[in-house]
Design a protein that fits this description.
It contains 16 helices and 17 strands. With about 475 residues, it is an alpha+beta fold. Bound molecules: zinc ion.
Length: about 475
């Protein structure tokens, strides 16, 4: 592999979160009983006419705006003709030579920092139905997914390693989620990816023959499949043969790619303009007004977290990984403004709860406001940092206000100097020899006294306060 350069381009299909399908009013929803959402339009019955879903166009334009595409004021739908049992119409309505969004770019995070991947286009298309092969002797067909809206995001062949492909998908997924146009549920197939990969000798300008890996719905598996495929192509070339243009399916269980068919070319699909739909006209003013509604995007937010809040890049990356998490972070700052402290607590205790309990961040009982309160209580010495961890867990368990938990559990630090003084005095009285050694100059023994006093107060004494009391009493 060391002599070769890998070239990867990705085509990502993202299912749009519209209520209804792309060209009819059937519901577009995963998980409903099979064959409950179908009509003459999505079944392709004679005489049925498609009607464009405005909301789907809006979502596609939002995505185009977010990654800097040029939004075409006029684009055309086309029929892509092929037979497959999950496609009752015998063709898919897609876009071909005049797509909705053209050009654009997506920043990804790689080891060396940020790299920008070019976007070729985004187009709108309908999904096919679903075949189920593992229930009963034959295959079953579910029409519910027929005609649900997809955007296909096609990248330039700008990625140079499977790891970059992984980073690209991560970055794309983040943006789709930030825009709230796709739920990116990989298991349900809302985000699927086809990858084109070729290799060439280092320094070579011409692209090698590419192969395609179809229908991946796991980022990790895609990375593995690309590694396998690059290796396979290198072995083919090393043995003096040439790589064939082929389509593969990845088999995760064997860790191998399985040839599916020799790769078809666009002309095999007999694309032609969809005669039942008018050209899609998107007015510039609409595009511009949608641009105004874009949320702050992950890369911008990341930079802001670093520059304005002083977070290290890795923390900024974690905290912007989802919009909800970034919101949680910023909302916590409204109650407690030390950004680095908040970042550390979220990346430690809060994300641990999220992970252990498999929760969404916005479903936590430790709301951003409650976390802010807890951190404030640490700062003003009402509780110790150690107790704070306990308070966080208990707030999550019992859904109560932090102050209430602290009171009920007696977790407050004793800063009342009277109580502390008594405790310190007892410790000193019980250890006359140590006191003597301290007085003769073994100043390190202060640690011992603080430890004893902390024990005497069951860990609730304020260590700083205790320290200064001892120094004063022995000084
Ligand atoms: Zn329908």
């Amino acid at each position: 592999m060391v002599d070769y350069e890998i070239v990867i381009g990705l085509e990502v299909h993202a299912q749009l979160l519209t209520t209804t399908k792309l060209f009819c009013s059937c519901r577009s929803r995963f998980g409903d009983p099979p064959n409950t959402h179908g009509c003459p339009v999505c079944l392709g019955l004679p005489g049925a006419l498609p009607v464009m879903n405005r909301r789907a166009v809006e979502m596609a334009v939002r995505m185009g705006n977010a990654i800097g595409c040029k939004i075409a004021t006029k684009s055309i739908f086309a029929r892509k003709n092929y037979f497959y049992p999950d496609l009752p119409k015998g063709y898919q309505i897609s876009q071909y030579d005049m797509p909705l969004c053209i050009g654009g770019s997506l920043p990804i995070i790689v080891n060396e920092g940020e790299k920008v991947i070019g976007i070729t286009r985004i187009h709108l298309e309908e999904d096919a139905g679903k075949l189920i092969h593992d229930q009963g002797p034959g295959s079953l067909f579910d029409v519910n997914r027929c005609g649900t809206p997809l955007i296909e995001i096609v990248s330039e062949p700008d990625m140079r390693s499977p790891a970059e492909a992984y980073a690209y998908l991560l970055s794309l997924k983040q943006i789709l989620e930030y825009l709230e146009i796709c739920d990116c549920n990989m298991e349900e197939g809302s985000l699927r990816c086809d990858a084109n990969i070729s290799i060439r000798h280092k320094g070579e300008k011409k692209l090698g023959t590419k192969t395609e890996i179809k229908n991946m719905n796991s980022f990790k598996e895609l990375e593995k499949a690309l590694e396998y495929e690059a290796q396979r192509q290198a072995e083919v070339l090393e043995s003096g043969n040439s790589v064939l243009q082929q389509t593969f399916l990845w088999d995760p269980s064997s860790g191998r790619s399985i040839p599916m068919r020799s790769k078809e070319d666009a002309h095999d699909y007999r694309y032609f303009p969809e005669p039942d739909l008018m050209p899609l006209v998107v007015e510039q003013s609409w595009t511009d007004s949608l641009k105004q509604t874009l949320p702050e995007l992950p890369s911008h937010r990341r930079t802001r977290f670093e520059k304005e809040m002083g977070l290290v890049p890795s923390a900024a990356e974690v905290l912007t990984s989802s919009r909800a998490l970034a919101d949680y972070f910023e909302q916590t700052l409204l109650t407690y403004s030390d950004a680095r402290q908040v970042a550390n607590w979220i990346m430690g205790d809060i994300l641990r709860i999220v992970k252990d309990e498999k929760l969404e961040i916005n479903c936590l009982k430790v709301t951003s406001e409650r976390l802010g309160k807890i951190l404030k209580l640490v700062e003003n010495n009402t509780i110790s940092a150690r107790s704070a961890k306990k308070v966080i867990n208990l707030v999550q368990e019992q859904d109560k206000e932090p102050e209430k938990i602290i009171e009920e559990q007696g977790l407050g630090q004793i800063s009342d100097s009277g109580a502390l003084e008594t405790a310190v005095k007892t410790v000193l009285d019980q250890n006359p020899d140590t006191v003597e050694r301290y007085k003769k100059g073994e100043k390190k023994l202060i640690g011992f006294f603080v430890g004893q006093a902390m024990r005497a107060t069951q860990g609730k004494g304020n260590p700083k306060e205790i320290n200064s009391l001892i120094t004063r009493m022995l000084g």
